[in-house]
């Protein structure tokens, strides 16, 4: 049966472009350095399964997700590569981790002990990556002193755990703020020192990894055995202030349809709470997308869309399911016309990082909050291959 395409508001996801982005990353890695495809939060809102399947076809055999259920979703879709669960899984669910052959990241002595006990009780050995805190101060073993490293070593020797990797995470690799570089390099030093300390304790650290997208771009010396590619696969070299990765391009467009058009008189109030009052005669188009779809309400009277290759400013409060744009200067706008919210039309384009910045956010948040009502249309070889 032909899939139903409602044309209400939808994402167009170009998987070939994602493969190109992957190739651009790989081109800059040392031989032997693996790519981990980070597809947490449903692949940053773009569909973890479709992305992972294509990445697997491109030879990626390592994935990262945030949660147990995200890992299980990939397994149910017959993704066979390694899957690292980045955040906490309750130890009572260890048998699920084992059943799905997932790698759990382990971030403290207590958590390691609990997982070890649960794994042995389940009669298994749980694959794990040791997470070291080098300055993010979120999760991870402290590893700055010999005593702290001893505690990491104890965790690594637990019989219920099989340590296949050791990793850390940069806090500031994609911001250009004062001191960010020094901070990252300090984290890198701490990571290297901890790896050395573990080696001197005869601990096999397995696959070593610390780079996210920003780190990949900025610190080739930090690539180690694997790099974790999230945003960059979606086309966002997040350390954009360092420039020079122009061949990485966004894979996703967000589009919607004009569903209503009206002329309004000067003084007419538009949308909830009358925050916008027409300063002149205007032509207004209604778009059926709102904050329930992940379009930030913070963009009320600030955002803009592209219609007929021209900018149309959003006016009044963004509603739950709809919003209004000013099409006064744009000739021939008709019911059913397509408006581009992310992506390009003619000479104009806007991407998730720019739109997010306007809303005081980042592309990670904007994409990952794109809601389930938006249909996902996948393209490969120029053809529509799947609608979700
Ligand atoms: C999300 C995440 C990544 C990917 O980050 P990007 O900046 O999107 O590449 C890598 N590592 C960890 C631990 C993460 O949580």
Automatic annotation (TrEMBL):
Query: Magnesium as a keyword?
Result: no
Gene Ontology terms, MF aspect: alanine racemase activity
The active site lies at 40, 272
Does this UniProt record's set of keywords contain rRNA-binding? no
Location of N6-(pyridoxal phosphate)lysine modifications: 40
If you read the UniProt record, what top EC class would you report for this enzyme, in one word?
isomerase
- Catalysed reaction(s)? L-alanine = D-alanine
> What does the record give as its pathway?
Amino-acid biosynthesis; D-alanine biosynthesis; D-alanine from L-alanine: step 1/1
EC code: 5.1.1.1
Domain (Alanine racemase C-terminal) ranges: 251-379
Source domain of life: Bacteria
Binding sites annotated in the UniProt record for substrate: 138, 320
**Key words, A-Z:** Isomerase, Pyridoxal phosphate
The protein's required cofactors: pyridoxal 5'-phosphate
A Pfam family of this chain: Ala_racemase_N
Give the family this protein belongs to, as stated in its UniProt record: Belongs to the alanine racemase family.
- Main function: Catalyzes the interconversion of L-alanine and D-alanine. May also act on other amino acids.
- Protein name (Swiss-Prot/TrEMBL): Alanine racemase
Originating species? Yanshouia hominis
Q: What is the lineage of its organism?
A: Bacteria, Bacillati, Bacillota, Clostridia, Eubacteriales
Q: Which gene encodes it?
A: alr
């Amino acid at each position: 049966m032909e899939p139903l395409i409602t044309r209400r508001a939808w994402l167009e996801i170009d998987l070939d472009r994602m493969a190109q982005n992957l190739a651009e990353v790989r081109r800059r890695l040392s031989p032997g350095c693996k790519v981990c495809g980070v597809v947490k939060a449903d692949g940053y809102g773009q569909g973890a399964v479709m992305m992972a399947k294509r990445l697997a076809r491109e030879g990626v055999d390592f994935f990262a997700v945030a949660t147990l259920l995200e890992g299980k979703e990939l397994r149910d879709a017959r993704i066979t590569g390694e899957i690292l669960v980045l955040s906490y899984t309750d130890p009572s669910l260890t048998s699920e981790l084992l059943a799905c052959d997932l790698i759990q990241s382990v971030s403290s002595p207590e958590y390691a002990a609990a997982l070890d006990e649960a794994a042995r009780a389940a009669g298994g050995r749980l694959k794990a990556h040791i997470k070291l805190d080098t300055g993010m101060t979120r999760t991870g073993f402290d590893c700055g002193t010999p005593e702290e490293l001893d505690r990491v070593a104890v965790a690594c020797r637990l019989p219920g755990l099989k340590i296949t990797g050791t990793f850390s995470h940069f806090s500031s690799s994609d911001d250009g703020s004062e001191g960010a570089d020094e901070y990252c390099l300090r984290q890198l030093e701490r990571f290297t020192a901890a790896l050395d300390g573990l080696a001197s304790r005869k601990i096999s650290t397995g696959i070593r990894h610390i780079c996210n997208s920003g780190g990949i771009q900025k610190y080739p010396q930090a690539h180690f055995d694997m790099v974790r590619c999230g945003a960059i696969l979606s086309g966002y070299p997040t350390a954009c202030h360092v420039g020079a990765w122009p061949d990485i391009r966004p894979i996703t467009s967000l589009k919607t349809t004009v569903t209503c058009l009206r002329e309004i008189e000067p003084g007419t109030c538009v949308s909830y709470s009358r925050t916008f009052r027409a300063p002149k005669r205007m032509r207004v188009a209604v778009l059926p997308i709102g904050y329930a779809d992940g379009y930030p309400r913070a963009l009320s009277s600030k955002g803009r869309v592209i219609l007929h290759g021209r900018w149309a400013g959003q006016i009044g409060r963004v509603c739950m399911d709809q919003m209004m744009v000013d099409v006064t200067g744009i000739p021939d706008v008709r019911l059913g016309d397509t408006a581009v919210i992310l992506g390009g039309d003619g000479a104009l384009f806007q991407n998730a990082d720019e739109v997010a910045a306007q809303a005081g956010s980042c592309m990670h948040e904007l994409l990952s909050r794109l809601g389930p009502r938006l249909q996902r249309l996948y393209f490969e070889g120029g053809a529509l291959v799947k609608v979700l």
